[in-house]
Amino acid sequence: MAKFIVIFIVFSFLFATQFSNAKELENPSGPIHKEGGEGSLTIGQCPAACNVRCSATSHKKPCLFYCNYCCNKCLCVPSGTQRERDRERALARTGGKGKTKDDGLTPEQRRERDAKALQEKAAKKAAAAASSGGGKGNNK
Fold first, then answer.
1. Looking at the 3D structure of the chain, how many domains does it have?
2. How far apart are CA 74 and CA 40, in angstroms?
3. What pLDDT is attached to residue 17?
4. Residue 55 counted as domain residue
5. Which of 16-20, 26-30, 86-90, 99-103 shows the lowest mean pLDDT across its residues?
6. At 1, is the secondary structure helix, strand, or coil?
7. What are the pLDDT digits (tens) for 98-111?
8. Do residues 70 and 96 make contact, with C-beta atoms less than 8 angstroms apart?
9. Residue 90's domain spans which residues?
10. What angle in degrees, to the nearest 10, is found between the helix axes of 46-53 and 60-74?
11. Does residue 135 belong to any structural domain of this protein?
């Protein structure tokens, strides 16, 4: 009789386990892959994830379109925002030479340099106007 009770308990346990897994597979409560990557989202989560990813781009409409298109296929969203990817592409195009203010000058030195350049430009312009005879008033 004890043998029958043990076998009954084991089969009951296996039966209950089988049906609990089947119910979970039919209606999953969360994403299948919790660590990210392909299959880490459900189709219902794609729009919200794409809104976050495309939040900082200046081309929001195409970013959202293609992000949602890809997300519906792979159930994943690339990491980072579109702005970060745009900066990486621009940096790659310029060969790593971006705009920098690292010229070794203090702000005061920059102001002095710029003022001197403006004075030289104004002097050149005045010299060009003087050599052409003043321009407008000498036509007869």
1. 1
2. 9
3. 56
4. yes
5. 26-30
6. coil
7. 566 667 788 899 89
8. no
9. 32-97
10. 140
11. no
Query: Does residue 134 belong to any structural domain of this protein?
Result: no
Cα distance between residue 90 and residue 96, in whole Å: 9
Query: pLDDT tens digits, residue range 70-96?
Result: 888 888 887 666 667 777 888 888 776
State how far the Cα of 104 lies from the Cα of 49, in Å rounded to an integer: 43
Number of Cα atoms under 13 Å in the Cβ half of residue 50: 21
Distance CA 132, CA 113 (A): 29
At 23, the pLDDT band (50, 70, 90 cuts) reads: very low
Report whether 68 contacts 50 (CB < 8 A): yes
Tell me the average pLDDT across 28-52: 70
The residues, any chain, with a CB within 8 Å of residue 39's CB and separated by 6 or more, are: 31, 32, 33, 74, 75, 76
Asked if the structure places residue 131 within a domain, the reply is no
Element (H, E) at 21: helix 2-26
Output the pTM of the full model.
Answer: 0.35
Over residues 17-42, mean pLDDT: 54
Here the tokens at position 98 are: 């971006």
Which is it for the CA torsion 104, 110, 116, 120, positive or negative? Answer: positive
